[in-house]
């Protein structure tokens, strides 16, 4: 216990020192919103990665891997190839240059100025501000539940306030510089812990091939309920046409793997560096970092079955009493060396804080820069800074309120909800805005609103995980989803497990292209400005 | 090549994850000092 307390105190001391350094260097709104456009590649890569990977990505999805197996490695591949390589090389460079030409400070401002539309800026700003506190609340709930278990003397409610206060201090005062400096430190701790985790796991099981083979040999022990849902083993993929197959492939792999491209808190980071060089270097650092995060979590999560079976004669989900969120914490607690569990807790604290700080920042600047500043006249940089700090404070309070109100089971749902909404609303107009001069203002508006509407419809009335949880469909139509009474096993019935993005993203894309082809092009002069840095 | 994994699909996902990381590292090293050709450069705006 003393070790855990010392570890957390040393960690917090470093965080506050970095926050203080950032505060000293934050003097104008570009510092606060874009870290002065002067970040170095290591800070960029680690901040991008640590923001992307929250506690729920390691503990939650690692636990899912413990339950469903290594098919989640497809998500690892996508997070590295799409989330780092494609994102930085094909999105990051163009976003940085176009963002600079348009003097954009936030993702909604970037979209709004690209299409010359205040509506687009305000609509996207409001969507981000309204929904990101729910996503942030899910991260906050997750880490506070872990802290409550590690330090039972302090209650969950007190942890909610303490953790919020710690992150609030440095985000409100130091803006994006504080967020990114602390992210880099937090990311370094996370990388070290995950490296130790995978080396220890493979060593315990006699090597890479031996460990995988032992897991393959456990296929006969797949619990009956999971086998009925479509699972075939921990080193084989689930049947595609099954509830588990559709959940793994459409929500976890496709939804999250593609959804990463339109996350506002990640996109903003492309605009924080002075040249392409920093992005190029960040590709190398970020690729290794993400492999250490999702790759290790999903492999170690799946291999925990072998270790648990050897030690306790049960597979992971049975040891965890059918709560997959407990698989990774139990594995750390029961199998890893004692000294590691304290450090791993600090790493998870770091993972949660790095994600939350960015969520607070992007939510707050969306409210201030993209909404309030459209109505309130800000005379100079100082006023803009005050408004931004006010926005961040409101986002933090909103997150705390959501965390107080929402049940623990909301963690995975809130994450999927935000990823889904962002991808359907923003991805087509963002990609086409970067690459296609024929994209029109009307096309962008219709695509964004249409994608948002389609995604909301699917989340509220079709996708059983969210629709069942929210209960609107039940209240309106007396059934959990609109397709709940279709013949079991039919495609209509299986739609309940198909991710909203499988439907909403194509709808949004078709609307963007179709409407743009039929409406008036944006003026050449404006397009020349947008493309100024791309020639 | 299969590394003890039970299906080609999962082995492919495993190797593609490693290959994607290698691609990132090689790309980063090859372009380590490539600032690009934008005339705006950068720095604080």
Give a written overview of the molecule.
The complex is a heterodimer of chains A (535) and B (45). By secondary structure, chain A is an all-alpha fold. Helix content of chain A is 76%, strand content 0%. Chain A has helices at residues 2-24, 29-34, 41-52, 55-68, 73-101, 107-115, 118-150, 156-204, 208-216, 224-228, 243-259, 264-270, 276-312, 316-319, 327-334, 338-368, 381-405, 410-435, 441-461, 464-470, 472-477, 491-494, 500-518, 524-530. Chain B is mainly α and 45 residues long. Residues 41-45 of chain B have low confidence and may be disordered. Classes of the chains: A mainly alpha (535), B mainly alpha (45).
Structural class of chain A: mainly alpha
**Which chains have the largest interface?**
A-B, 57 and 34 residues
Structural class of chain B: mainly alpha
The H-and-E topology of chain A, N to C, reads as HHHHHHHHHHHHHHHHHHHHHHHH
Estimate the strand proportion of chain A: under 5%
Draw up the topology in text.
The complex is a heterodimer of chains A (535) and B (45).
Chain A: H1 2-24, H2 29-34, H3 41-52, H4 55-68, H5 73-101, H6 107-115, H7 118-150, H8 156-204, H9 208-216, H10 224-228, H11 243-259, H12 264-270, H13 276-312, H14 316-319, H15 327-334, H16 338-368, H17 381-405, H18 410-435, H19 441-461, H20 464-470, H21 472-477, H22 491-494, H23 500-518, H24 524-530
Helix pairs in contact in A: 1-8, 1-16, 3-8, 3-12, 3-13, 3-16, 4-13, 4-16, 5-11, 5-13, 6-7, 7-8, 7-16, 7-17, 7-18, 8-13, 8-16, 8-17, 9-13, 11-18, 16-17, 18-19, 18-23, 19-20, 19-23
Chain B: H1 8-30
Distinctive features:
heterodimer; A: mainly alpha; 24 helices; B: 45 residues; mainly alpha; rod-shaped
Short description:
The complex is a heterodimer of chains A (535) and B (45). Chain A is mainly alpha-helical and 535 residues long. Chain A has 24 helices and no strands.
């Amino acid at each position: 216990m003393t070790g855990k307390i010392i570890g957390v105190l040393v960690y917090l001391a470093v965080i506050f020192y970095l926050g203080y350094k950032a505060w000293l260097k934050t003097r104008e709104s570009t510092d606060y919103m874009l870290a002065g456009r002067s970040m170095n590649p290591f800070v960029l890569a680690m901040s991008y990665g640590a923001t992307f990977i929250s506690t729920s990505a390691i503990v939650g999805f690692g636990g899912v891997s413990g339950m469903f197996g290594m098919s989640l490695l497809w998500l690892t591949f996508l997070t590295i190839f799409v989330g780092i390589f494609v994102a930085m090389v094909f999105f990051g460079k163009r976003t940085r240059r176009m963002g600079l030409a348009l003097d954009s400070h936030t993702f909604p401002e970037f979209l709004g100025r690209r299409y010359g539309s205040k509506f687009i800026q305000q609509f996207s700003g409001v969507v981000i501000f309204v929904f990101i506190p729910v996503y942030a609340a899910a991260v906050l709930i997750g880490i506070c539940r872990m802290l409550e278990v590690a330090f039972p003397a302090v209650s969950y409610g007190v942890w909610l306030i303490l953790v919020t206060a710690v992150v609030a201090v440095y985000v409100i005062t130091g803006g994006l510089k504080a967020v990114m400096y602390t992210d880099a430190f937090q990311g370094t701790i996370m990388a070290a812990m995950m490296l130790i985790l995978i080396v220890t796991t493979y060593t315990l099981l006699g090597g890479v091939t031996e460990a995988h083979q032992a897991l393959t040999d456990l296929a006969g022990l797949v619990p009956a309920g999971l086998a009925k849902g479509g699972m075939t083993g921990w080193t084989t993929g689930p049947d595609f046409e099954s509830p588990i197959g559709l959940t793994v492939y459409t929500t976890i792999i496709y939804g999250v793997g593609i959804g990463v491209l339109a996350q506002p808190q990640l996109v903003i980071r492309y605009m924080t560096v002075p040249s392409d060089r920093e992005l190029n270097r960040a590709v190398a650092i970020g690729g290794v970092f993400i492999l250490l995060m999702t790759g290790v979590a999903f492999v170690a999560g799946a291999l925990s079955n072998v270790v648990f079976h050897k030690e306790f004669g049960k597979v992971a989900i049975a040891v965890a009493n059918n709560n997959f969120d407990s698989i990774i914490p139990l594995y750390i607690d029961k199998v890893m060396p004692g000294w590691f569990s304290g450090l791993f807790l600090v790493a998870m604290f770091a993972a949660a804080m790095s994600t939350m700080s960015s969520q607070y920042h992007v939510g707050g600047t969306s409210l201030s820069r993209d909404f309030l500043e459209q109505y309130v006249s800000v005379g100079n940089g100082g006023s803009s800074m005050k408004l931004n700090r006010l926005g961040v404070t409101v986002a933090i309070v909103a997150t705390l309120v959501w965390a107080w109100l929402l049940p623990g089971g909301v963690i995975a749902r809130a994450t999927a909800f935000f990823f889904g909404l962002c991808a359907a609303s923003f991805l087509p107009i963002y990609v086409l805005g970067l690459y296609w001069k024929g994209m029109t203002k009307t096309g962008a508006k219709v695509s964004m609103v249409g994608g948002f509407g389609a995604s909301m419809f699917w989340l509220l009335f079709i996708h059983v995980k969210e629709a069942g949880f929210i209960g609107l469909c039940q209240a309106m139509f007396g059934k959990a989803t609109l397709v709940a009474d279709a013949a079991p096993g039919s495609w209509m019935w299986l739609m309940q497990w198909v991710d909203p993005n499988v439907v909403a993203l194509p709808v949004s894309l078709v609307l963007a292209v179709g409407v743009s082809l039929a409406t008036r092009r944006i003026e050449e002069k404006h397009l020349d400005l947008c493309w100024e840095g791309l020639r | 090549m299969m590394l003890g994994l039970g299906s080609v699909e999962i082995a492919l996902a495993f190797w593609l994850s490693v290959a994607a990381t290698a691609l990132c590292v090689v790309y980063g090293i090859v372009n380590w000092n490539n600032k690009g050709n934008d005339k705006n450069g950068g720095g604080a705006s």
